[in-house]
Design goal:
- By secondary structure, the chain is an alpha/beta fold.
- It folds into two domains: 5-44 and 285-384, Aspartate Aminotransferase, domain 1; 61-281, 3-Layer(aba) Sandwich (Aspartate Aminotransferase, domain 2).
- It has 13 helices and 13 strands.
- It has helices at residues 14-27, 46-57, 70-84, 100-110, 125-133, 153-159, 182-192, 251-263, 270-281, 285-306, 333-342, 370-383, 385-388; strands at residues 33-34, 93-96, 116-121, 137-144, 150-151, 164-170, 198-202, 227-232, 245-248, 321-322, 346-347, 349-350, 362-365.
- The structure holds pyridoxal-5'-phosphate.
Length: 390
Amino acid sequence: MQVVEKISRLRIETAFEVLVKARALEAQGRSIIHLEIGEPDFPTPRHIVEAGMRALDEGWTKYGPTPGIPEFRDMIAAHISRTRGIKVAGENVCVVPGGKPIMFFTMIALLEEGDEVIYPDPSFPIYESMIRFLGAKPVPIPLVEKRGFSFDLDVFHKKLSEKTKLIILNSPANPAGSVIPKEDLKAIADMVHDKDVMILSDEIYSRIWYETEPTSITSFDGMVEKTIILDGFSKTYAMTGWRLGFGVMPLWLADAVNILTVNSNSCTASFTQRAGMAALSGPQDGVTAMVTEFAKRRNAIVKGLNEIPGFRCQLPAGAFYAFPNVTGTGIPSKQLADILLNDAGVACLNGAGFGKYGEGYIRFSYANSLPNILEAVERIRKISDRWAKE
Ligand code: PLP
């Protein structure tokens, strides 16, 4: 007996793989600085934890409605309507355990064999994984470093075809930390306005930005009807382990997602949703403090990386990743990431793990303390004479 062929088309996230390797080195007594995992290092704000505990005490420990607690869905709809400048209702909201299930469910609901899916490269590895799993055709669009890791819109336009069923956007982005400029989103909205395509707009980092607030493609005329907004609590409120996310989408698609939910996880944990209500309705100073701290770290890591021979790093506009070009080292990025882990004790990710156009880059997550970040940069600098001499 063996599993079906399509399981072999699924990919994993290298972040989890590198974490295991790093932990194994630590078990041998090595000191490792963790810049591999995409998870805020801050605790979940206290009032959210307390709301979760109170919910457990109050008995929010049973099955709940499949699409989410109605009050919570209304609250999410109001939040999305306000922050994106659009009008959506609670019935457009599907609450799920994390942001990822929205990719999984909506792509199952939309894609058939042979459908084409446009998506950024490099990007979150699960996009391509799901496209291949469903027998659809991946159409990666390279992100251009010179354009702040945005698309070349001419390439985008050329790749748009009659077979394009879905376009995936991610802004602010993993792994490059880029924010798609408003005028680019407008150009994309114009390109697809009259086409029968859907957009999966992954906005999981929507609250983590520095100089310019990201725009959602839904704010352009006619786009709400064509878009699934993916967002959640993992990054914004440092709630990765709570598993709480949501999608906002047209009703016909929400119905399909809810059916898939009944057939898989039934519903999202009720007490987690109560904590989510406290997150949205309570004080937001925890988010502000976290982003202020990320900004300091971003400046420090980018400055430090740019002083390392062979590294060239742009200032990311959002999320908490630095994505230096390391081609100047002359070492393939996979090999370099291994060297940095094994010899410098700095866990980081090979850019090619995010798509073929990520080759030549390394992703550093700066969700770690400033002293650790400075120490990581120093450790890399110390071994850099290896490639600097060549
Ligand atoms: N989308 C992107 C771009 C991400 O980087 C991540 C997590 O790393 C997710 C979605 C998934 O978030 P969650 O942990 O809520 O499933």
